[in-house]
Amino acid sequence: MKWIKGLCNFQKHVKPQHSKFGGLPYLEKVSALEIDTSQNVTQRCYSSQSDPDLSRDWFAKLWVADKKRKKNSRFTMRTNQRFEKPIHSNGPIDNIYEKMRSLKLPLDWWPSNASVAKTQLNEQIETGPAPPPPPPPPPSQSVTGSLKSTSKEEALVAPLLARSNLLITRDIEWANLVLGFEQENRYAIVDASYPQAPVGFIREQSHLIARQILRTRRPFVACVTDAMGNEVFKVRRPFWWITSTIYVEIDGKEIGVVHRRWHLWRRVYDLYLGNTQFAVVENPGFWFWTFTLKDINGKVLAEIDRDWRGLGFELFTDAGQYVIRFGRGDAVSKIGAAAAIQDLEVERPLTLSERAVAVALAVSLDNDYFSRHGGWGIPFVAIEE
Known about the structure:
Order of helices and strands: HEEHHHHHEHEEHEEEEEEEEHEH
CATH architecture of the domain at 138-370: Alpha-Beta Barrel
InterPro entries: Scramblase (IPR005552), Tubby-like_C (IPR025659)
Largest sheet: 12 strands, antiparallel, barrel
Strand content: 15-25%
Low-confidence stretches: 14-52, 83-114, 374-385
GO molecular function: phospholipid scramblase activity
GO cellular component, one term: plasma membrane
Structural class: alpha+beta
CATH class of the domain at 138-370: Alpha Beta
Helix content: 25-40%
Family: Belongs to the phospholipid scramblase family.
Radius of gyration: 35 Å
Mean pLDDT: 75
Number of strands: 14
Region (Disordered): 124-148
CATH topology of the domain at 138-370: Tubby Protein, Chain A
């Protein structure tokens, strides 16, 4: 039906020319058009003269006329109302015109943006709307007492850090593993009481060339987000030569910092909230992988454990795993396997801002001591710098 309208429109706008066979061209040889709407069959009756030679120029003119016809919005509206009436059935949305492919010009067989959108609508009707993402697990510690938000910055980090135990796992970097190509570090944060889904993520943002040249001494900014991808706070680590420093920023405001003190074999860190030091870490070094945060009186405030993940992980990858223990969790969170988790006895619970500094310490530990320093393009071999 569509190409018939095109022929009629072309006949109105193009002057008839005589073909090399003599007589009128092909358009004037169409004497009648009989359309059987009940059977969707189109019959064409021609004159008794012989058919002309349809040249390429003729089809080009027909194509141009069809393009002009499509630009006419009124004609398109009438055509849609007449030929694109939807079929009322139990199947996906379709129409008579799309099923009658024999009545289309070849250029109309290719899918357009409208057909692609309709296909997506059909798939949505068949499969239903996409399910919403699961809600993040509830906090495993009540936001009361020292965990009560005292500023808008702490209210922003409360859903992520009001938890008794956080498990931070670094992803495997396959380019670094096979080719020695340093990639941006990525971590997943999981609440040990609700291990079904992560509660947040950490992703490094750094310069490509700086990562390859400076390696673990490179400057970077790591964004800490919740499970929905919303930024909670940032940790910023500038270039360092002898001792490293990492800063914590919430909503663009610097709230804390972690300074590493130089020692020949011990691993010593000072943790500050503003200009006030609230904790210190003094690790004996070597294969001792527990980093305990203590106050000025030597009382335990929190603890960071670096877990052993197996010989293959530790020998060939940087995919470390860290457990941050903040103290006792609520009884309602001790369900299933979480009931077997032994809580850390602390002198006092860390505030939400102090916990953000503790997370930054875990990121600094991973880059200072548990990241490979080499791997210059040799597969499975780490060459120390």
